[in-house]
Specification:
Largest interface: A-B, 26 and 29 residues
Oligomer: heterodimer
Radius of gyration of chain B: 14 Å
Distance between the termini of chain A: 37 Å
Strand content of chain A: over 45%
Number of strands of chain A: 11
Helix content of chain B: under 10%
Structural class of chain A: mainly beta
Largest sheet of chain B: 6 strands, mixed
Strand content of chain B: over 45%
Shape of chain B: globular
Order of helices and strands of chain A: EEEEEEEEEEE
Distance between the termini of chain B: 38 Å
Chain lengths: 115, 116
């Protein structure tokens, strides 16, 4: 069964450093998302991406964040200058469409720890 | 106002018994979808079940069923015949028609522990 994959599973970085989180969505999916879950808290929407551009972003997704689909398979989230409060689990999700029945399938997550 | 409310931070159930996890939602959209995800201690998010706002029947998927009460705006997850592997965090989420991205809005989750 096809699945969303994410690398790395765990990333430790120093405050102020840039990180790139990588995702490979399910191959026939067209809509891609990043979500964040701070430890012990709810999952929060960051950004959605369709047709090579951002379709919507939350207030969390400020200028420090960017997303890219550099080729036909990868979908990346870059944090330019990490802060301590960026420590969280980051989930990538993908779906075939934006119909209400189109389930978003999540990757296993990348746990980002900022020191 | 919270869009998705899960009032049970933690629940315990005896193995082989049924358990209901509560979820209430708030939306003015006539069309929306409700989802339940399971998050084991390993951290991944596993899709369990979906209920559409116009669905006449409650959704079922194996041991999972959804008790959907539209007038009450509730979409409770029922797990029958609980197994030890069901111990996990469970999130209720909603997807509304409004908003171009139709992203999911999650509740705060319920930590379910199945006791042997």
């Amino acid at each position: 069964e096809p699945e969303v994959t994410q690398t790395p599973s765990h990333q430790v970085t120093q405050m102020g450093q840039e990180v790139i989180l990588r995702c490979v969505p399910i191959s026939n999916h067209l809509y891609f998302y990043w979500y964040r879950q701070i430890l012990g808290q709810k999952v929060e929407f960051l950004v959605s991406f369709y047709n090579n551009e951002i379709s919507e972003k939350s207030e969390i997704f400020d200028d420090q964040f960017s997303v890219e689909r550099p080729d036909g398979s990868n979908f990346t989230l870059k944090i330019r200058s990490t802060k301590l409060e960026d420590s969280a689990m980051y989930f990538c999700a993908s779906t075939t469409g934006q119909g209400l029945t189109d389930t978003q399938y999540f990757g296993p997550g990348t746990r980002l720890t900022v020191l | 106002a919270q869009k998705i409310t899960q009032t049970q931070p933690g629940m315990f159930v005896q193995e082989k018994e049924a358990v209901t996890l509560d979820c209430t939602y708030d939306t003015s959209d006539p069309s929306y979808g409700l989802f339940w995800y399971k998050q084991p201690s390993s951290g991944e998010m596993i899709f369990l079940i979906y209920q559409g706002s116009y669905d006449q029947q409650n959704a079922t998927e194996g041991r999972y069923s959804l008790n959907f009460q539209k007038a009450r705006k509730s979409a409770n997850l029922v797990i029958s015949a609980s197994q030890l592997g069901d111990s996990a965090m469970y999130f209720c989420a909603m997807r509304e028609v409004s908003g171009s991205a139709r992203q999911l809005t999650f509740g705060s989750g319920t930590q379910l522990t199945v006791l042997p």
